[in-house]
Amino acid sequence: MSIKDLKPDAQKKSGTGTLKATISNDYPHAREYNGEPFVFVTDNKKVALFTTDEFPDDPLTKFNLSLDLPADKPIAKYEFRSGSLPTPPSFSRVQGSSHTVYGSDENFGYLNVIDLDLSKGTLKADFIFAYTDYENDGKRHEVTGVIDVAGLEVITSK
User: Fewest CB atoms within 10 Å of the CB: 7, 10, 22, 36?
Assistant: First the structure.
């Protein structure tokens, strides 16, 4: 399941709370990420979280961070590995009509799920992952953060 495979309620965003992260190594566009859930959904097999944060000095610029994780093994520390859940987060910058996606470095980082309660619709976790910014001299940036979200929406596949 990816967010694209699901049919969330198109009339409203799902989820409340925050995903807060710090971006290392002088990322030129932002050093703090304060994302709010836009999509927080499950099909009872996987959980998908998509967050967004507006660039403080430019309302036309937004940052997005998304990840998928298993719903059936909720409390665990997951190492990010190619081809397995949870998928390493995807980090992107949207500026006007330009969309830059920074793929996570493979086989680096983890997602530590502290609490995932499908019946209450909550997720608490901490994480670390890294990506390389090929637009700015190929610098590698580590992203460390915490997730504290609620309002999980249960949906069905297409």
Answer: 10
Task: Determine the residue type at 65.
Answer: L
Give the helix, strand, coil percentages of the chain, each rounded to 5.
0, 55, 40
- The identity of residue 135, as a single letter, is E
Task: Choose among 62, 71, 10, 68: nearest CA to 36.
Answer: 62
Tell me the per-residue pLDDT of 120-133, one tens digit each, with 9 for 90 and over: 999 999 999 998 88
8-41 residues labelled b (16+ CB within 10 A) or e (exposed): beeeebbbebbbbbebeeebebbeebebbbbbbb
Question: pLDDT tens, 23-70?
Answer: 888 776 667 888 999 999 999 999 999 999 987 677 777 888 888 888
